[in-house]
Amino acid sequence: MGIRKRSVVQAKQVLRRVFSGPEPAPVPKGHLPVYVGETEKKRYVVPVSFLSHPIFQSLLSHAEEEFGFHHPMGGLTIPCREETFIDLTSKIYSS
């Protein structure tokens, strides 16, 4: 349980929501913004290295099925619950 909780905390630090007033903060080099949520979309910044991980590729396939290559938020949109996204990315981070 302690390891799981620590990996979720670390993932939340990596996946920090990016806010800076009405305009989103710039994306650091080596990262990309993604919008997560079923109804209300929240912006997260993830490392580009996540793109090659099988769990993240599964999320991308789901996004492709739902949106094709048109993403209404203007960026990569992942249609899953925010809690699910954090849980899955914490597994990526800990592996």
Question: What does this protein structure show overall?
Answer:
The protein is α+β, with helices and mostly antiparallel strands and 95 residues long. It has a domain of 66 residues. Helix content is 42%, strand content 16%. It is built from 3 helices and 3 strands, in the order H-E-E-H-E-H. Strands 2-1-3 form a 3-stranded mixed β-sheet. Helix 1 packs across helix 3. The longest helix has 14 residues. The chain starts with a helix and ends with a helix.
Essential attributes:
single chain, 95 residues, alpha+beta, three-stranded mixed beta sheet, globular
Task: Provide the fold topology.
Elements lengths: L1 H13 L16 E6 L5 E6 L6 H14 L8 E3 L3 H13 L1
Parallel strand pairs: 1-3
Antiparallel strand pairs: 1-2
Short description:
With 95 residues, the chain is of the alpha+beta class. The chain contains 3 helices and 3 strands.
- Morphology: globular
Number of DSSP-assigned strands? 3
Instruction: Please state the oligomeric state of the protein chains shown.
Output: single chain
Strand order of the largest sheet: 2-1-3
Mean pLDDT, rounded to whole units? 77
State Rg: 13 Å
Helix residue percentage: 40-55%
Low-confidence stretches: 17-21
Count of helical segments?
Answer: 3
List the helices and strands in order.
HEEHEH
Termini Cα gap: 16 Å
Main sheet characteristics: 3 strands, mixed
Strand content: 15-25%
Organism: Kalanchoe fedtschenkoi (Lavender scallops)
Protein name: Small auxin up regulated protein
Family: Belongs to the ARG7 family.
GO biological process, one term: response to auxin
